[in-house]
């Protein structure tokens, strides 16, 4: 499936929802993300979660309430729903910039998606974060700003960065030393790849 699953979470970034869904796309509100979608004038197809941050269960047939005592976060519930419906491309708003433990949980959720053969992006006004596992991601020459990469496994092998200010070739990164931080695009086609392991890639506005 080439369509996109859009998920909106409850992190405080309601002014950054840039969803322009196509006919086959899916929009999910994860808990308090429902409030942000309502402010943006967007009706989600599904509302899911324990609704603790929202404070009430929306009175509509597409609301799926869960108990607070559960293993999955509300974001993971939404991700699993999208995967079950066949989606493999996920754009997630309201998943960065709130509680740091929630942000870390959402990064782990991007790793979960990558290991399911899917691709997730966490997006806010200045940042886009994604995870690749034993793969590559390419950027065209128009890409601007900064880029950082981090090992999510104990060791990540064969990390290569080409077309960036600081090139890297077949490096081993660990999750105990941030050697991949603060690289930059330089107006060339570029690529980041990893041979083995989970690599977090963060695009950011350095200004």
Number of strands: 14
Largest sheet: 10 strands, mixed
Second-tier CATH architecture of the largest domain: 3-Layer(aba) Sandwich
The CATH topology of the largest domain comes to: Rossmann fold
Number of H/I helices: 3
- What is the total number of structural domains? 2
Fraction in beta strands: 25-35%
Overall pLDDT score: 92
**CATH homology superfamily of the largest domain:** Thiamin pyrophosphokinase, catalytic domain
* Widest beta sheet: strand line-up: 4-3-2-1-5-6-7-14-9-12
Tell me the name of the CATH class of the largest domain: Alpha Beta
Structure description:
It is a single chain. The protein is of the alpha/beta class. The chain folds into two domains: 4-125, Thiamin pyrophosphokinase, catalytic domain (Rossmann fold); 133-204, Thiamin pyrophosphokinase, thiamin-binding domain (Jelly Rolls), CATH 2.60.120. It has three helices and 14 strands. The protein has helices at residues 33-39, 74-84, 100-115; strands spanning 4-8, 26-30, 46-49, 63-65, 89-93, 119-123, 127-133, 136-139, 146-151, 155-162, 168-174, 183-184, 190-193, 198-204. The strands form two sheets. Strands 4-3-2-1-5-6-7-14-9-12 form a ten-stranded mixed β-sheet, sandwiched between helices. A four-stranded antiparallel β-sheet has the order 8-13-10-11, with no helix packed on it.
């Amino acid at each position: 499936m080439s369509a996109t699953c859009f998920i909106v979470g409850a992190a405080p970034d309601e002014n950054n929802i840039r969803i322009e869904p196509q006919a086959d796309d899916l929009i999910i509100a994860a808990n308090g993300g429902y409030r942000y979608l309502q402010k943006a004038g967007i009706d989600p197809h599904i509302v899911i979660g324990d609704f603790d941050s929202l404070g009430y269960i929306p009175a509509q047939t597409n609301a799926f309430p869960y108990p607070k005592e559960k293993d999955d976060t509300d974001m993971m519930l939404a991700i699993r729903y999208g995967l079950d419906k066949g989606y493999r491309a996920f754009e997630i708003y309201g998943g960065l910039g709130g509680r740091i433990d929630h942000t870390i949980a959402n990064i782990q959720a991007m790793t979960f998606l990558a290991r399911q053969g899917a691709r997730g992006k966490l997006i806010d006004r200045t940042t886009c974060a994604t995870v690749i596992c034993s793969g590559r991601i390419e950027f065209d020459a128009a890409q601007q700003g900064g880029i950082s990469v981090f090992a999510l496994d104990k060791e990540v092998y064969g990390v290569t960065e080409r077309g960036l200010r600081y090139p890297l070739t077949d490096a081993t990164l660990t999750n105990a030393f941030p050697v991949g931080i603060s690289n930059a695009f330089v107006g060339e086609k570029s690529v980041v790849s990893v041979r083995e392991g989970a690599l977090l890639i963060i695009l950011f506005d350095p200004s």
